[in-house]
Design goal:
Largest sheet: 7 strands, antiparallel
Order of helices and strands: HHEEEEEEEEEEEE
Shape: globular
CATH superfamily: Jelly Rolls
Distance between the termini: 34 Å
Number of helices: 2
Number of strands: 12
Helix content: 10-25%
CATH architecture: Sandwich
C-alpha cells in the first residue's frame, strides 16, 4: 500500500509539473489539495464504506485536469466514453476486469461529448490490480468491473476541450 501511494503521489507531481504551459493566466489555486496523511484518511474512509463513488483530490475550476478517487464495490461500473478528455487510472487496491474499446450498447449522452451506458460491446477485457496503470485516450469506451469484489483507483482526467 505504501509503495502504491508513493507511485500515485509521483504521478500527481509529474502531471502537475508537465502541465504548466497548458494553464490559463489565472492564479494557480488547486481546490482540495491533499497531503499524504489526508489521502490515507480518505482511503480508509472509502474502504470502511463511509464514502462511496468519486472523491476529489486535486482540481481547479475550469482547469486543464482534475484528479479524484473512484471506488466500485460488488457491481459493474458504468460504461463511459469521453469525446474530448483523456484519462489515466492508477489502481490503489482491489482488482477489476477492465474493458476498453468497442461501443456502449445503450449509449446515452450525459453532457457535450460525454456518453454513458451499462455495457460495452466489442471491447477488449483484461484483468488489472493494485499498482496497474490504465491509459484511456479520448473517444475510447471504458468500464471497470470488480465483480463481487471491490476496486479503488485514482483517476487523472485531462480536459481536452479546455
Amino acid at each position: 500500500m505504501k509503495k502504491t501511494f508513493q507511485m500515485s503521489i509521483f504521478l500527481i507531481v509529474a502531471l502537475r509539473l508537465a502541465l504548466p504551459g497548458r494553464q490559463s493566466d489565472a492564479p494557480d489555486k488547486l481546490a482540495g489539495v491533499k497531503t499524504k496523511a489526508e489521502i490515507d484518511t480518505l482511503v480508509a474512509k472509502i474502504r470502511g464504506g463511509k464514502l462511496k463513488g468519486a472523491q476529489p483530490l486535486f482540481e481547479r475550476e475550469k482547469g486543464p485536469y482534475r484528479i479524484y478517487t473512484s471506488f466500485i464495490e460488488n457491481r459493474k461500473g458504468a460504461a463511459d466514453l469521453h469525446g474530448t478528455d483523456d484519462e489515466v487510472f492508477l489502481i490503489v487496491s482491489g482488482a477489476a476486469e477492465v474493458t476498453l474499446g468497442g461501443d456502449i450498447s445503450d449509449k446515452k449522452s450525459t453532457a457535450a461529448n460525454e456518453f454513458r451506458g451499462t455495457t460495452i460491446v466489442g471491447g477488449i477485457t483484461r484483468s488489472a490490480g493494485a499498482g496497474d496503470i490504465i491509459s484511456i485516450p479520448r473517444g475510447t469506451a471504458h468500464q471497470m468491473n470488480p465483480g463481487a469484489g471491490q476496486v479503488l483507483y485514482i483517476v487523472i482526467k485531462m480536459n481536452g476541450s479546455r
